[in-house]
Design goal:
The protein is built from twelve helices and five strands. It has helices at 3-13, 17-20, 74-88, 116-119, 140-147, 152-169, 172-189, 195-202, 210-236, 241-248, 252-261, 268-277; strands at residues 33-39, 44-51, 59-66, 93-102, 124-128. Strands 1-2-3-4-5 form a five-stranded mixed beta sheet, with helices on both faces. A hairpin with a 4-residue loop joins strand 1 and strand 2.
């Protein structure tokens, strides 16, 4: 289940969601913009960044990391990247904060003593979703985050409850966004079920939602990519890592074009020539 994608979609739809998790959120939280940023030399990208509005008074930049698998060097990476980005952009911000979101404490890295100053201070907030309380007592957007963590048997019942609650509480544009994200969560959570089975679980028609169309297109692209890679291997032999990465970056239309062109390939030179023509 692609939880990082789901969480970043949640933050894009509702940037203030992060601040609902914090004890001391910024006063102007509704003016923040969720984005990803890059830092050069060395080059790396930070996917979850909440940027304050541009003004004469620099605000606080918030770095957010959603971590659903154990990473024993997560804190080393997050604190290094956050500090370096702040260093290179210190004129724009007055301070930085980091928020780490875990499904539970068991996912947190084991070696935390070297980072005690950050972890025990005010600059880093750790959120454990399974400790936020009953999903039905949480704000809807926060409840969607918790929905990604609960067992499948309970997820269906809670998803239906959140759908009903959203229809009752949220204005129409926000309600549509909630339905889209909720169905995203459920389609990924029950990826082995058919469309009809997921529809019956939720009591809605997924083909009417944008998420179903996107996931269907995504599945088509993944299938085309697998087919092209298999055919290329048969035609020109084992593919170098660089070539694999090039194929991975192709759009669906480009993959389909490559699928037709490779029928005439006899060597790696033919594939190189095709890429040069792009």
């Amino acid at each position: 289940m692609r939880r990082d994608t789901i969480f970043y979609k949640l933050f894009q739809q509702s940037p203030t969601l992060l601040f609902e998790l914090l004890t001391n959120p910024p006063i102007n939280g509704d003016e923040y913009r969720f984005d990803s940023v890059a830092v050069k030399e060395p080059k790396f990208e930070i996917d979850g960044v909440f940027l304050p509005p541009k003004s004469s008074n620099p605000g606080v930049v918030y770095f957010c990391e959603v971590q659903f698998q154990k990473d024993e060097q997560l804190y080393e990476r997050v604190f290094a990247e956050s500090s370096l980005y702040f260093y290179r952009n210190s004129a724009r911000f007055s301070d930085w904060q980091a928020v780490i979101i875990y499904p539970s404490r068991s996912i947190e890295q084991s070696k935390i003593y070297p980072h005690r100053s950050f972890l025990n201070g005010e600059q880093v907030t750790r959120i454990y979703l399974d400790e936020l309380g009953d999903i039905r007592s949480l704000p809807v957007w926060v409840a969607l985050m918790v929905l990604t963590t609960i067992e499948d048997e309970q997820a269906t019942e809670e998803a239906r409850y959140l759908l009903t609650r959203s229809q009752q509480e949220a204005p129409q544009p926000e309600n549509r966004a909630i339905i889209e994200l909720l169905t995203t969560i459920m389609v990924y959570k029950f990826e082995n079920k058919s469309q009809r089975e997921v529809e019956e679980m939720l009591g809605i028609t997924l083909r009417e939602t944008r998420v179903y169309r996107e996931i269907k297109e995504e599945g088509r692209e993944e299938g085309e990519k697998s087919l092209v890679l298999r055919q290329l291997t048969k035609r020109v032999g084992e593919l170098p890592q660089q070539v694999l990465q090039q194929v991975e970056s192709l759009s669906l239309e480009q993959l389909e074009n490559l699928g037709e062109a490779l029928l005439d390939f006899t060597s790696m030179a033919d594939l190189d020539a095709w890429f040069n023509q792009l």
